[in-house]
Design goal:
about 80 residues; alpha+beta; two-stranded antiparallel ribbon; 2 strands; elongated
């Protein structure tokens, strides 16, 4: 099945924004197909917004950083 240029570009942008591995979305896509096209899944968008919160460090190797991101994502599951 052919993938549109817009879908490919959005998928690549998502992987680059947070430097996810090329295997990050091997089980489930970061994108969702809707009636009008393809969108970013809400939980992925929430994670990107949380990661770019200016009060968080730009880089963290502390495992607790994941908890801070989850707290900023709110009630999404």
């Amino acid at each position: 099945q052919a993938v549109s240029a817009e879908t490919l570009a959005l998928s690549q942008a998502v992987q680059v924004i947070l430097l996810w591995s090329d295997m990050a979305f091997s089980d489930r896509s970061a994108l969702a197909v809707v009636e009008d096209g393809v969108i970013l899944r809400p939980e992925i968008g929430a994670l990107i917004r949380a990661a770019y919160d200016p009060v968080l460090p730009a880089v963290a190797s502390d495992p607790a950083h994941a908890l801070r991101l989850a707290a900023r994502m709110g009630g999404l599951q």
